Amino acid sequence: MSDILARLGDQIDSRRQSNATESYTASLFARGEDAILQKVGEEAVEFILAAKGDDSADLVAEAADVWFHMLVLMSAKGLGPADILNELQRREGVSGHAEKAARVSD
C-alpha cells in the first residue's frame, strides 16, 4: 500500500514545476499555501458530510480527496508520504492515551 503513496508523492512533487493551466496539482502550488490549506479544509468537510451518509463509495472517494490534498500540502512544506508513514510506524503499538500525553508534555 505504501508504494502507491510513494508514487503519488513523487508525482505531486514532479508536478510542482508543471504548467498550472495543464496540471491541477501545479495550479494548487501556483495559488500558494493558503489556497492549498483552504482546499484541504473543503475536502475535509466533504469527507465528514459523506461519513454522515450511507454511501461507502462516496466516503472512500472523499477520503481519497482528503489524502491527495493533504499530500499536496505536505509537499508544499517539503514533506511527503514517508514522513507520515514513519510517524504512524513510530506510534504503532503505543497507547493512544500515552502517545497524546507524550505530545502534551513536549
TrEMBL record:
The keyword Transferase does not apply. Its main location: cytoplasm. It catalyses: 1-(5-phospho-beta-D-ribosyl)-ATP + H2O = 1-(5-phospho-beta-D-ribosyl)-5'-AMP + diphosphate + H(+). Gene3D superfamilies: MazG-like (1.10.287.1080). PANTHER family: HISTIDINE BIOSYNTHESIS BIFUNCTIONAL PROTEIN, HISTIDINE BIOSYNTHESIS BIFUNCTIONAL PROTEIN HISIE. Belongs to the PRA-PH family. This is Phosphoribosyl-ATP pyrophosphatase. The lineage of its organism: Bacteria, Pseudomonadati, Pseudomonadota, Gammaproteobacteria, Chromatiales. The gene is hisE.
